[in-house]
Amino acid sequence: MKKARSLALLAALSASSAAAQFTPALLQNNSYWGDGKAEFNIYDAQIARYGVPRPCEVLHILVREPFDPKQFVKPEGSPRPETIAVLKLNQILHVPTGLYVYQQMHSNFWRVDNAQLLKFSLTSNDSCGNTYKEARRNGDQLTYEYRTYWDGMAEGKESVAVPANGYFYDELPWLVRTIDFSKPSGEFPVQLAASIINSKKDTVAFQPAKISFKSTERTIDVAVEHAGGIDHFILDRDGPYLLREWTAADGSHLKMKRNLKVDYWNYNKPGDREKALADPMLRHTD
What we know:
Layout: H1 2-21, H2 30-33, E1 38-49, E2 52-67, E3 84-97, E4 100-111, E5 117-125, E6 130-138, E7 141-147, E8 155-161, E9 166-168, H3 172-175, E10 185-193, E11 207-215, E12 219-226, E13 229-236, E14 243-247, E15 253-262, H4 272-278
């Protein structure tokens, strides 16, 4: 009995330590997100598929928007009393693999008031078939649904218990930017579930991981040591701690080539990409 209480206390202290290492300050920064524009980050990338890095371009789009907690979607029309604010991250991958291509988008939605992950979803098309996955917050659990083209995993629904210090690998591009960097270095434990950016049904399991960071004059190097290896994230030393480079344990690599702050949904005409990229007013100040 004493041993069980000791283990429970250790787990609680570990969860508290991890939570204390993340801060909602950037998430709740109205001067940065309150302009109605998105952070539009374009990366030169090498994304590993079948064990081989494939040259491509990856987009990370972050934007604050209203959210209907009943439908778990963005509401349209007049403001509603139940609407809350979320920060959305879309990770968009277009990865050539020989004769065909992977086209995938993963979306995360975090509450602005408490930084809690409310929902994630994935669409995946690898030229063989379509897969859709979605998880929605239900208390301290996520209701996870999937529909894939794979035999034996055509569709399903299950509950996933999320530990107090539990996070998903696909949250990391944003999560590492919310670390408390008031000290020049540090490390802390978390529980980390593997990426769901793939076409098959996942077995979601949270495993021990360690996050550490070291600051230099211009950058912060964040290392995430997990069951699959070590990922390194290079951030700007100062807020908003832009993700400049990401070297993943599987051999994937992203390096930022352009960062914009832009209402990208209004740039949908022929030539608008070139127009946006050439506009110095849309660039983040380095």
